[in-house]
Amino acid sequence: MSDSLRRFLLEQTPVRGEIVHLDATWRAVLERRAYPAPLEKLLGEMMAAAALLSATLKFEGSLIMQMQGSGPVQLLVVEATSGHTLRATAKWEGDLPEGDLKALLGSGRFVISIVPEGGKQTYQGIVGMEGDSIAEVLEHYMAQSEQLETRMWLASDSRQAGGMILQKLPAARADDPDAWNRATQLGATIKREELLALPATEIIRRLYHEEDVRVFEPRPVAFRCSCSRERVTSMLRMLGHDEVRSIIAEQNSVEVDCEFCGRHYSFDAVDAEQVFAAEHVTRAQPTKH
Ligand SMILES: [Zn+2]
Questions:
Q1: How far is 154 from 196, CA to CA, in rounded Å?
Q2: Is the distance from CB of 219 to CB of 211 less than 8 angstroms?
Q3: Which residues surround ligand 1, an ion (CB under 5 A)?
Q4: Which of 20, 36, 121, 173 lies at 20 to 30 Å from 283 by C-alpha?
């Protein structure tokens, strides 16, 4: 099945939905790094969740979802762009227990950042990690930060990930006050295997065949890592000339691996000096008033 997002509306009701299916996008993450099974499940679900959220929020740029834990798993990160590309990574230590979110992350916090393209006005929302699953944490976040009633169902295995989100939009008319309850009760009957195996149109047909549903055209989703030598260069500048010199003195080079895609960046002594030489040129330019 192709990697895509599909939006739908229950006509004459305030209910909006979105379904995502990730296939090659999810496998691109797994091919680059091996994750222990319990963590793999969480990361796949979080990737599906980020795709769903990026499709429902209005933004241009990147949406970064982080779960910061105090347990054996310290961090889960998924970045989704407004162009529907995704990347993901996680940090953990030692052997992981089987179990839910709490067993893996302990107590922690959930952070959503929106970084606009080329802009600096980053929006950030932080909530405590309340809930036993990625879906519950997200539902809690949306209720608290966006004041939007949200239900989410997520599933992942070692080949694919999928999910569905329902949102209750603020409606001017309330002709059908039971619509939200009806939609979420039907939504809750979706099975994990169905989310993974069925095309979005089939899921919508099974759940909402008695409703008047408008289904939109699918939008493609893909894996893409935005790392580049240029970005690593600015990271080294932030680290500072002295720090980089001392790494060169100790190790002869600075070696950086992208945590998302595994791409390797190497700076020898000459490269490193150029990083800072270029900075002096930029700084030396007179500012115009
Ligand atoms: Zn990368």
A1: 9
A2: no
A3: 225, 227, 258, 260-261, 263
A4: 121
Q: Ligand 1 center to residue 77 CA distance, Å?
A: 13
Question: Can you give the pLDDT at residue 264?
Answer: 95
Q: Could you tell me the distance, in angstroms and rounded to a whole number, from the CA of residue 86 to the centre of ligand 1?
A: 11
Query: How far does the centroid of ligand 1 lie from the alpha carbon of residue 80, in Å?
Result: 14
**Structure tokens belonging to residue 226:** 């935005």
For β-strands 161-168 and 213-215, DSSP reports them as unpaired
Give residue 161's identity as a one-letter amino acid code: A
Separation of 225 CA from ligand 1 center, angstroms? Answer: 5
| Rounded alpha-carbon distances, angstroms, from residue 70 to 46, 156, 216 | 18, 24, 41
What is the C-alpha separation between 46 and 48, in angstroms, rounded?
Answer: 5
Question: Ligand 1: distance of its center to the CA of 103 in Å?
Answer: 29
Does the reported pTM lie above 0.85?
A: yes
In which residue are the tokens 């802009």 written?
119
pLDDT at 120: 73
Specify whether the CB–CB gap between 137 and 129 falls below 8 A: yes
Ligand 1 mean position, distance from CA 5 (Å): 23
Predicted local distance difference test score (pLDDT) of residue 283: 52
Q: Are 64 and 78 in contact (CB under 8 A)?
A: yes
| C-alpha distance from residue 108 to each of 3, 101, 104, 159 (Å) | 31, 10, 10, 28
Q: Where is 153: in which H helix or E strand?
A: strand 149-156
Question: How far is the C-alpha of 72 from the C-alpha of 152, rounded, in Å?
Answer: 26
pLDDT of residue 279: 55
Find residue 14's DSSP bridge partners.
none
Regions of the chain with pLDDT less than 70:
119, 172-174, 278-289
Start-to-end CA span in the chain (Å): 56
Q: Give CA–CA dist 79/28, Å, rounded.
A: 14
